[in-house]
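Support request, please re-run this one:
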Amino acid sequence: MKRILLVNPWIEDVSAYDYWLKPLGLLYISSALKHLVIEPVVIDCLDRYDLELVSFGARRGDRHFGTGKFLEEEIAKPRSIASIPRKFKRFGFPEEVLRRKLRGSGSVDGVFVTSMMTYWHYGVSDTIRVIREEKPGIPILLGGVYATLLPDHARQYSGADFVCPGTGMKPLEKALAHLGIDSTLQFDWFEDLDPDYSIYESPRYAVVITSLGCPFRCTYCASSFLWDGFLSRDSFRTTEYIKFLIETKHLSDVVFFDDAILVGNGFKELMREIENRRIRTRFHLPNGVHARFLDMETAGLMFENNFKTIKIGLETSDPALQNTTGGKVSSRDFYQAIQNLFEAGFTSREVSAYIMVNLPGQSEKDILNSLEVCEELGVNPSINEFTPIPGTAQWKDLVDGGMFNEEIDPLLLNNSILPHWWEGGFSFKTIQRLKEAAWSLRRKLSGE
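Re-run finished. Output below.
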């Protein structure tokens, strides 16, 4: 039987936090390989509950609903941020743990490495370096978001033998073909497969998706670039898998990471299925749901099914900016959604609003107005700093405007490192002042 090693790499950045981070694409690839009678061997460098981390003093205690801090180690800064007064760190397994797991993985026919944020590419290349040293002569193939949004950069800098851009099963088909393995996938992966959580002994939480893509075309978002159209999965299948995970993994939290989960009737159908089966756990929606689709029925179903985290995408309270960035939300939509949630029984403990900061053309007054809206409604604000994502309309505008060129080190796109991209963009001090205003409002709403 063929064997493929699947690796979720380190994060290397100035900061990182396990805010329900699971390599969902890699877990689907693992399921697909099993379907093809190919044995997957999975190493997740970001698994905080791996038993080998105990000897390193890893804090196994969760903070909020399964989220928590990664093990971290300060490492040398890349040249591109040498003059920036921030420590650069590696998050995840200590290197000796990764090497030990690679040595124990046995003989494999290839190594598939996934990737997430483009500005985490140093973690990808460092992980591939270690794999190369421990698995000499074995082909290393790279997929994931970074490989899809910046394939040329990945080919030049990642160290992989072959880069497989794309979403769904397209990267797997390319990777298997490159290895000379029959790559004919005669199944509907999204309907027929579930992410493979069997690799985790004690996951505490699971991330699932019920849909792919988004019908909106927001200028700052890459969803429409990554996925062609919008597709919902059968709610009965998703419910059965959630029930299976809770029963077999004893999960306390289930997290939905869809880009547009409230679009269509799929979410309501899923909620009714979960309610009918009396599945009891804590559910979370951290991805900024569309306010216009959060009607009273949806709010009631969410309350009955014990949702503990609901992030609403307010983004901006400026009507002009709402329209020019894609028309995802209006202030009227937002007000109505919050009213529906509170009437259903939710409080500010469960509900918060994403407010984008440092959008091109955005004023400080806009953010302050958005905070006032949150205070008026009793909603916790959650500051979300704008990051230019390659391939999006905002990215193209910034490149065309000469703010930076496409050859820039993606690490510098990280808003935690260098937020001042354009004429009139906010300084670190301004962003910090706005964050402090948001924190102050959160404390006020919590009664502290």
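The CA atoms of residues 327 and 354 lie 15 Å apart. The two ends are 59 Å apart (CA to CA).
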